[in-house]
Amino acid sequence: MHAQPLHACPPATRAPPAPVRALYVHIPFCHTICPFCAFAVHGSRERLHEPFVASLLRDMDLAEPMPEPAAIDSVYLGGGTPSTLGVERVERILVRISERFKAAAGAEIAFEVNPEDATVEYLAQLKALGVTRLSLGLQSLDDATLRALGRSHTSLQAARAYDAAQQAGFDNVNVDLMFGASGIGAEPFRRDVKRVGDWRPAHVSLYGLDIEERTPFGRNPDIRAWAGAHREQQAEHYLWAAEALESFGYVHYEVSNFCLPEREGRQNLRVWSGCGYLGFGPGAHSYVAGRRWANERHLMAYETRLKRGERPIAFEERLTPVQAANEALLLALRQRSGLDVAGWEAHFGLAWGEQRTRTAGELAQRGLAAWDGVRLHLTRRGMLLADEITARLLVNDAQIAAPHP
Dihedral of CA 185/191/197/202: which sign? Predict the structure, then answer.
């Protein structure tokens, strides 16, 4: 089943609420917590797994009814490291999802796997449970790079993980690659890209190393200094890799994501196109009918609230028309298809205006965007500045028109 068009789920504000089409399940455990990671994660200990799974199932049971019936066509188990869980616990989670939510025929069920867990036997068991897509957190195929990133697996384990996925019968595999590790030059990363290009997985996600403040890397002055001094090098890594992957036949369909034709990640498309989604597990986010909420990040707080019969919501908000319009703008500009200006205007009841027209023309003159007066999309170099460009195009309260009668 091919992914639906990007306009399938417009953001909910003036139009009827977009249907809930996707589920995200956050498994917080990691064998080793990466020093660059700012996600809701916890060290993996077997004794913690069963209480967590029991809480996760409770979380699903307490989910509020969806505003309208909708068939879920994307389920994504991420983390953390879902592959820290044994197959029996994964099966219980998938069974509860099938019991609790209506799944569409041909739904994509994606599962993140770390190389140290990727045996042929384990992956074959996942496939037998109905998992249709694997995402392998390889990051690199170079041992020095892996050490610089604080990863616990080796380049040999990374290569064997991809081989195991093939042997287990998966033809829909994503490979994560990361660039910008402290002290690592261009050549190891280029070798990684070329080797992955030879493998031809269905999908490649390409990430520059971000230094988050509240992480071990963020507290390391040497690593922060390296990152600051090598921003231009990171940009060149990205531009070179994007061009190389396209030469291998990949479509650059979002800032960080590349796929063989018609092999986009279903979860990606659903979230970026404004569909509703439900998130379960510590730190997981949900978005339904213009309302967004997030669960407790810390495992103990998450489990404690569920034991009391409470939903573990730590934060929630209802998007204003301004927020909804700006988020739709941001998500559209991160995608290769770009922004359909007339559709955006009609949906949010606002005008593009002369100022944005001038800005779009200026971006086109600088080679950062393509603009024909109808659609605005960023060039490869423009994608490096997606956040900065979006900031120049944001709307404010005064620019939102009165609701249509």
Answer: negative
171 phi/psi in degrees, rounded to 5: -110, 0
Cα–Cα distance measured from residue 101 to residue 221, given in angstroms and rounded to the nearest whole number: 47
Structure tokens of 298?
């810390």
pLDDT tens digit sequence for 255-306: 999 999 999 999 999 988 888 899 999 999 999 988 999 999 999 999 999 9
Number of H helices, E strands in the chain: 15, 17
**pTM of the complete model:** 0.92
Q: CB of 125 within 8 A of CB of 87?
A: yes
**Is the bond preceding residue 80 a cis peptide, omega within 30 degrees?**
yes
d(CA 388, CA 401): 25
CA dihedral 337, 341, 342, 346 (to 10 degrees): 110
User: Which three-class secondary structure state does DSSP give residue 367?
Assistant: coil
Measured CA to CA, the distance from residue 177 to residue 207 in angstroms comes to 6
Single out the residue of 106, 160, 168 nearest to residue 134, CA to CA.
168
Strands 103-113 vs 285-288: parallel, antiparallel or unpaired: unpaired
pLDDT in tens, 340-371: 999 999 988 888 999 999 999 999 999 999 99
